[in-house]
Design brief:
By secondary structure, the chain is an alpha/beta fold. The chain is built from nine helices and five strands, in the order H-E-H-H-E-H-E-H-H-E-E-H-H-H. It is 34% helix and 9% strand. Strands 2-1-3-5-4 form a five-stranded mixed beta sheet, with helices on both faces. The longest helix is centred in the middle third of the chain and has 18 residues.
């Protein structure tokens, strides 16, 4: 699995879990190999299974609208799922099915090496931020294993409930500013280079030096700060973040 194309062929021929018996097409994922953003959903639905492409149903249409709202198109990002074959009747994927597919997603992350991973919904969020309800961690940047992860509720949830839609749109609006910061961190010299006519985004300061925790970065869980399992996965507003130090802009 040296390239994304090699990996896609492996996925299409995979028989490592029972999901392959009911698929019309496997859905490896799609997007450019140099994409700065990797979106990770849950699994293929009816339309995705028929076409072999991720996010092509109603939730996919909403995702495209969200990308357009921040000046992007799906051709600029890579879109994948936790499982690559449709679960029967669109049920939740089982832990065994997610485990069987994890090697493909992990390899996609390695090959893409994206600046930002956007998890869509509770299953992909749980891969990076386990033990927390999506409603508690959405809209905040997390540092996990050297990757920057930004959880957002699944677009399908926004189609079902208007209050979720507003939260999804609010979180999406933060993505351009986050990318600006991550680009500068990856290449500090780029801070002084901006193309003529490139749209400007709100400034997001990175905060004090590394010895002081940044307000926009939540560190990996440790024994001292391990998350407390939530009482439920019901929709709720995340707790208010602490006030930023003077002169520092809050991201969330």
């Amino acid at each position: 699995m040296d390239t994304l194309a090699d990996l896609a062929r492996r996925v299409s021929a995979c028989t490592d879990c029972p999901l392959h018996t009911g698929r019309t097409n496997a859905v490896p994922g799609e997007g450019p190999s140099d994409a700065e953003i990797l979106f990770i959903g849950e699994g293929p639905g009816f339309h995705e299974d028929r076409q072999g492409r991720p996010f092509v149903g109603p939730a996919g249409n909403f995702l495209e609208d969200l990308l357009q709202s921040i000046g992007m198109t799906r051709e600029q990002v890579f879109i994948a799922n936790m499982v690559k074959c449709r679960p029967p009747e669109n049920r939740d994927p089982t832990p065994a099915e997610i485990s069987a597919c994890s090697k493909y997603l992990d390899r996609q992350i390695e090959l893409l090496n994206p600046l930002l991973i956007v998890t869509l919904g509770r299953f992909s969020t749980a891969k990076f931020v386990p033990g927390q309800a999506i409603s508690r961690v959405r809209g905040r940047l997390h540092s996990v294993g050297g990757r920057r992860v930004f959880p957002i509720m699944h677009p399908a949830a926004g189609l079902r409930r208007q209050e979720m839609r507003a939260g999804i749109e609010e979180d999406f609006a933060k993505i351009p500013g986050l990318l600006d910061v991550l680009r500068i961190q990856a290449d500090p010299a780029s801070e002084t280079v901006r193309r003529v006519g490139e749209p400007s985004h709100p400034s997001y300061e990175t905060g004090p030096p590394a010895q002081t925790p940044s307000l926009w970065d939540i560190p990996e869980p440790t024994a001292e700060n391990a998350p407390v399992p939530p009482e439920s996965d019901s929709v709720e507003q995340p707790p208010a973040p602490p006030e930023p130090p003077p002169g520092q802009q809050r991201l969330f």
